[in-house]
Specification:
By secondary structure, the protein is an alpha/beta fold. About 55% of the residues lie in helices and about 10% in strands. Strands 2-3-1-4-5 form a five-stranded parallel beta sheet, sandwiched between helices.
């Protein structure tokens, strides 16, 4: 089955693109959703995270304290590496399980850090980047999350640059401020049809 790696920076709109592709028949496997499940109460990652970082990083409900961990990993690269060493093998395991049972026209793997990980490029047939300017990213993230500009800039600095993502892209979806929802859907539908033809 054709494997598409869908990526983009924070606030680029990749989740909306993935939703559209799923609606049209693709099998969507979202690594962010898997990571959220692993760090929810009772998730497989909770015990090793508590052991590695301490009980202060776990909420009273038994979930990962995402705000506290975000503050930690975006100011301390060693902490980020320790967290990734816990999460990445668990995410990879769940991705394999989901991919084996997923049914659809083709597979879409939504991977925010596809370029940064260095592992995904060899696992997918095509890379699709949802692209937008940084100003738009910042505005969208501020609107939906209320994060400070400094925190958003630290997240952006930890991600691959726009040029780095575009350099590995087979397909690009433009989703900047000037792109309407209708224009976005037309772009995504066009690629969906191309990928269906490739799979056929």
């Amino acid at each position: 089955m054709l494997k598409i790696g869908l990526t983009g920076g924070i606030g680029s709109g990749k989740s909306h693109v993935a939703d559209l592709l799923g609606r049209w028949g693709a099998a969507v496997i979202d690594t962010d959703l898997i990571a959220h499940a692993l760090t929810a109460p009772g998730g497989q990652a909770i015990a090793p995270i508590q052991e590695q970082f301490g009980v202060d990083f776990i909420t009273a409900e038994g979930a990962l304290d995402r705000t506290k961990m975000r503050d930690q990993v975006f100011t301390d690269s060693t902490a980020r590496a320790r967290l990734e060493a816990i999460l990445h093998p668990l995410i990879a395991q769940d991705v394999r399980v989901e991919a084996e049972k997923a049914q659809g026209t083709y597979h879409v793997f939504v991977v925010p850090l596809l370029v940064e990980s260095g592992r995904w490029l060899s696992r997918v047939d095509r890379v699709c980047v949802v692209d937008c300017d940084q100003e738009t990213q910042v505005a969208r993230v501020q609107k939906r999350s209320g994060l400070t500009l400094a925190r958003i800039e630290s997240i952006l600095a930890a991600q691959a640059s726009r040029d780095q993502r575009l350099s590995v892209a087979h397909d690009v979806i433009q989703n900047g401020t000037s792109v309407s929802l209708e224009q976005l859907e037309r772009q995504v539908l066009g690629l969906h049809q191309q990928w269906c033809n490739l799979e056929a």
